[in-house]
């Protein structure tokens, strides 16, 4: 019985086999590169950071007592409306709120600088010099949030300016905020080319770019995302800068200046960060602070857009009622209407307003706007 001889592969067969291996390896490498590129386009580095982040030093502590609202005042120096806010806090349980103030470095709140004891010693010790339209503004916001997060009882965080006023008493505002598990962040797609800087890519993609009001109200988890951010903030520091203001005396703008990006960090940072962290589904995409903007094209060209200041004359009961009666906000760039609701109940869109002069604030105080209120009235009107 003869035994078959084993066949030895020819050089041609060996070369063909190696060729298949090389083609397969190259194909897998190309596929991996394309997949990595695809993921970098449509997923954000922030979302992965958010998913893996840990705030063991703060977030894991349980607290005793009621949850607090942290009122975060971002001011130039003093608080000109401290008398109104003092009356507001007089009608609140001390255990239900805390106060933090970012003021000019070295400025202290005591009996010589404020009329309300609620603000004594509430200034940050690590405050910085803030310049409007620069990244120092959002850095100051992050410092306020960081300080407030040290108290685990702080569960809501309200950012306020030195010209903000409450439109309701503390009981109503507390019930309104604690009834919602969402943050209130005015956020919409920014379609203007002048704001987004292409140099932000690939870290910040254009389709994730957002704009909105600086005056936000956050739940604790979203405040932590902002403070923990080490990716988006440096990009804003480097590439989000406002353009020089136009000089009306020289006629039209220099063509070179027209090509510059005019990025205002505080109108984009929080909105874009939360968009990139895939958290927009957890937001009420509207602000709780009412503002009237200057609509004069002439003034806009020479001074830029600025909010109108309420005075004693135009802060009467009728105007305040008009603000309180607003129940929806329309966003033209997205053809989106935000109806202001708490679950199935229609609620006022705004809890605060700006900019108010001392005279306007005095009128609010004299007419009892921040006086006692039955919190159950929040759910009295159902749709």
Write the layout of secondary structure elements.
Elements: H1 11-42, H2 45-52, E1 68-74, H3 82-90, E2 97-102, H4 136-149, E3 154-161, E4 165-166, H5 170-178, E5 183-184, E6 188-189, E7 210-211, E8 217-219, H6 220-228, H7 232-239, H8 255-258, H9 269-276, E9 283-284, E10 289-290, H10 297-303, H11 317-324, E11 328-331, E12 336-339, E13 341-342, E14 345-346, E15 352-353, H12 358-366
Parallel strand pairs: 1-2, 1-3, 5-9, 10-15
Antiparallel strand pairs: 3-8, 4-15, 6-7, 11-12, 13-14
What brief labels describe this structure?
383 residues, alpha/beta, 4-stranded mixed β-sheet, 3-stranded mixed β-sheet, 33% helix, disordered N terminus
Mean of residue pLDDT? 83
Strand tally, please? 15
Described by its quaternary structure, the protein is single chain
From the alpha carbons, calculate the radius of gyration and give it in angstroms.
Answer: 27 Å
Which percent bin holds the helix content? 25-40%
Structural class per helix/strand content?
alpha/beta
| Biggest sheet features | 4 strands, mixed
Order of helices and strands: HHEHEHEEHEEEEHHHHEEHHEEEEEH
Organism: Hevea brasiliensis (Para rubber tree)
Subcellular location: Membrane
Protein name: Core-2/I-branching beta-1,6-N-acetylglucosaminyltransferase family protein
Pfam families: Branch
């Amino acid at each position: 019985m003869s035994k078959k001889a084993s066949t030895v592969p020819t050089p041609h067969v060996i070369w063909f086999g190696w060729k298949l291996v090389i083609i397969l390896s190259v194909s897998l490498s190309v596929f991996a590169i394309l997949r990595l590129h695809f993921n970098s386009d449509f997923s954000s580095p922030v979302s992965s950071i958010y998913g893996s982040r840990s705030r063991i030093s703060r977030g894991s502590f349980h607290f005793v007592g009621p949850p607090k609202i942290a009122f975060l005042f971002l001011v130039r120096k003093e608080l000109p409306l401290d008398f109104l806010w003092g009356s507001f806090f007089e009608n609140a349980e001390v255990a239900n709120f805390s106060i933090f103030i970012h003021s000019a470095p070295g400025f202290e709140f005591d009996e010589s600088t404020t009329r309300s004891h609620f603000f004594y010693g509430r200034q940050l010790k690590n405050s910085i010099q803030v310049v409007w339209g620069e990244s120092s503004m959002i850095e100051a916001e992050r410092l306020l949030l960081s300080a407030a997060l040290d108290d685990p009882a702080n569960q809501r965080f309200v950012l306020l300016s030195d010209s903000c006023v409450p439109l309701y008493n503390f009981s109503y505002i507390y019930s309104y905020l604690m009834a919602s598990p969402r943050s209130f962040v005015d956020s919409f797609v920014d379609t203007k080319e002048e704001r987004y800087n292409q140099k932000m890519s690939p870290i910040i993609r254009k389709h994730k770019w957002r704009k909105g009001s600086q005056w936000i109200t956050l739940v604790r988890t979203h405040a932590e995302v902002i403070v923990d951010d080490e990716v988006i903030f440096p990009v804003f520091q480097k590439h989000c800068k406002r353009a020089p203001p136009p000089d009306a005396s020289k006629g039209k703008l220099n063509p070179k200046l027209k090509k510059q990006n005019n990025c205002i960090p505080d109108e984009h940072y929080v909105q874009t960060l939360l968009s990139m962290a895939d958290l927009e589904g957890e937001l009420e995409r509207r602000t709780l602070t009412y503002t009237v903007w200057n609509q004069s094209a002439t003034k806009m060209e020479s001074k830029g857009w600025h909010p109108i200041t309420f005075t004693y004359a135009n802060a009467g009961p009728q105007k305040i009622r008009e603000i309180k009666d607003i129940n929806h906000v329309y966003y033209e760039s997205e053809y989106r209407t935000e109806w202001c609701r708490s679950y199935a109940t229609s609620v006022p869109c705004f809890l605060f307003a700006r900019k108010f002069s001392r005279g306007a604030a005095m009128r609010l105080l004299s007419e009892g706007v921040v006086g006692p209120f039955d919190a159950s009235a929040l759910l009295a009107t159902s749709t």
